């Protein structure tokens, strides 16, 4: 019996639909409620009416019209704004989701549809045993990138059955609190640092998690490359505008999956969004290293990032090494170039080499009170708009973060012809080892755009010293920095990899090795060369990497990817305030680049280190940024929501606060403060 007070003048009827699997029980319930009833009380009243004995702890109320969860159970209906016309759904918070990993494998697992995406991705990474979940996010493929695939599926006579790895029985997937993961710093190694397989002493750990030994191998090993026909069917960006489409679908990390229109059993892409791979360690990061390697591999095969023919052959050789699986260890430690600010791949390689050789790294203390300088004869190349470019030899002096050049060595005591400040400039390698061309392209910010200057070096050693100095100067660092000499060493080692020589013995019979060269290079090169020619050239390059282990080959591949000029750039089509045409904005880990959409040439670069503040005018969807020296820019984003760019900027600044002495818990509140905005 109900009391008469329950049906007072302030009560009203509320329709709630229950998402359950019992066909014999109704799904719609009409409850009489009052505005001062709290959400928890409403859920209790609803469960009492349903009369189904089951665990309702994972259920919560979803408000369809407002696209939001009612998770604050102590709030009243009045405070939430719920009235009689509200359509509420009582549904589970954890639902099945299909995720396409960078290695093109699909996993199916339960994910929280009510948590912010940042938290949901953290839980996913615990299931997959991927450390540093803050570098990862979820991407929804745009319609344009799916058109080609849909067209192919329509023409296909046989239905395509996708092999899906089901991880739905995980403790995190079930909505329970996850374990700290399999990567605690105090434990023994989880993975063999040579092969990437789970270490025998920790195999038993996987029996209690969805990552059984078999499942783990799916995530840690690369599988045979796809055929050229399959590659041709995949979306390949042909222009900067096409590349911008690839980054349009990043989900908002500050909102839940349900709030962003993601439904149960939808498919999303799990990708590394931020290109700052922190604290890579082969002992604990076999899955993470393999997935980064796969993301890099597909970016190169699908030409999402440009590289020279010489570089493409190095990438092909490293893939071939993985394919051939020569597990002999290197007798010498090898390194090569990487221009990332925090070279975690180099640290991982060093860690790997120490593990394999049983040695210890030597700490070298440098005298940082005396800033070194470079002085040498180089050639200066200046492109001319209406005439041929001029090439002249000068005496160059590099000190601090500036380059000065003089007519000759004797006049170096006087005033220079010109002094170039490289802080904040773009440094691009212009190298062809086979042709003995060692150039450095400098794009130096000036008032009306970028001043383009080329430096030509005589040999590899000179190039390595000057290139390393330019890279550090662009970041505001001098040659006194402890990273200078390792940078020189890496550049020299990378050049050594490029400098292969024809060995008739090694390539006399490319068919003797079971290898399809078309699987290791982008379609552009399969059209340019015949299969036998490609195989011979790949095997030439392969001689320099043939002694690498599987994990080392992947780490080298990642490092070579990081050394490409376009590495880490995410593109968006924008309209700058006051401009009458569209431009492309490149977002990187340490800078923003304005790029001419027609030519692809950089116009201006702004460094995050010079940024004072940034905000978004949500009414007109405009991003405004203030830099040092009273530089202001503002733009609207045309190829994606402006929130995506806002989150990218805040996310990179958040990642720059990480340090190795921290534990692996993240300041989630700080992330949302930097990325969430005040919408």
Automatic annotation (TrEMBL):
One of its GO terms (cellular component) is focal adhesion. Residues 379-475 form the PH domain. Coiled coil: none annotated. InterPro entries: Band_41_domain, FERM/acyl-CoA-bd_prot_sf, FERM_2, FERM_central, FERM_CS, Kindlin/fermitin, Kindlin_2_N, PH-like_dom_sf. The keyword Cytoplasm does not apply. CDD domains: FERM_B-lobe, FERM_C_fermitin, FERM_F0_KIND1, PH_fermitin. Keywords: Cell adhesion. GO terms for molecular function: integrin binding. One of its GO terms (biological process) is integrin-mediated signaling pathway. It comes from the Eukaryota. The keyword Secreted does not apply. Belongs to the kindlin family. This is FERM1 protein. The lineage of its organism: Eukaryota, Metazoa, Chordata, Craniata, Vertebrata.
